[in-house]
Amino acid sequence: MPHPDPLLLIPGLNCTERAFVPLLPSLWEQTTVTLVNHRRGDTMADIAAAILAEAPPRFALLGFSMGGYIAFEILRQAPARVSRLCCLATMARPDTAEQADNRRRMMALAAGGKFDSVAGANFPNTVHPDNVDDVALRSAHLTMARDTGAQTYIAQQRAILSRTDSRPLLPTLAIPTAVIVGSADQVTGADGARQIAEAVPGARLTLIEGAGHLVPLEKPAETATAILDWLRS
Predict the structure, then answer these.
(1) Which pLDDT tens digit goes with each residue over 190-208?
(2) Which band of pLDDT confidence, cut at 50, 70 and 90, is reported for residue 141?
């Protein structure tokens, strides 16, 4: 039986809707799917408001990586409109000082005309070690970065740096919540996922073996199964 609420999918930093393409055939069988444009604004509040302005009155919400940060902001702005939440390879806590410094360094390189090198250098950290030499994954990663562009990348990083700590929000959530993460996620990390799952009442954690941060492209079948389990719960 199809799920009654449409599903909004929010991509991550330097990602486009392409990150979700392998999941769509399975998801379309269960519900109406909207691929969200998260490339407008340079604060989480503005990005979330732009999404809400075009969203249906009530919806299920999935945020991938940065998309999870946006999802938390949507829940702050319009909690009654979200019927369920899926946190895919994301975290609720702010950056560490080291992470924030690295973001600023990447922003400076992108602003200085070295955006392709930024995307290329980041790829090994976004996938499972077994997938570092996967040509198709590397190509998809670079294509999404180029489709995003340096200016939008910098704006997204600015929004991430200024985001609100979402940990106080987690215990207040009273909607079906799934947390999905790759076992070798080096970006937001399995620990970040566990923190969300432990704080949200009734949340279910799914650890996907053989995947890093780019889990929807690395392990699409396993990721789709976990999402469908959440939609059917």
Answers:
(1) 999 999 999 999 999 999 9
(2) very high
Helix, coil or strand: residue 158:
helix
- Tallying the residues shown for the chain, one arrives at 233
pLDDT in tens, 157-184: 999 999 999 999 999 999 999 999 999 9
Of 44, 7, 28, give the one whose Cα is nearest residue 164.
Answer: 44
d(C-alpha 54, C-alpha 114), whole Å: 34
Task: Give the start-to-end residue ranges of the domains of the chain.
Answer: 7-95+157-232
The pTM of this model reads 0.96
The first and second tokens of residue 135, run together, are: 């040509």
Rounded CA-CA distance 174/7 in Å is: 18
- Overall CATH class of domain 7-95+157-232: alpha beta
What dihedral do alpha carbons 218, 120, 122, 34 form, nearest 10°? -50
What separation in angstroms does the CA of 12 have from each of 33, 43, 125, 126, 199?
Answer: 17, 14, 15, 12, 22
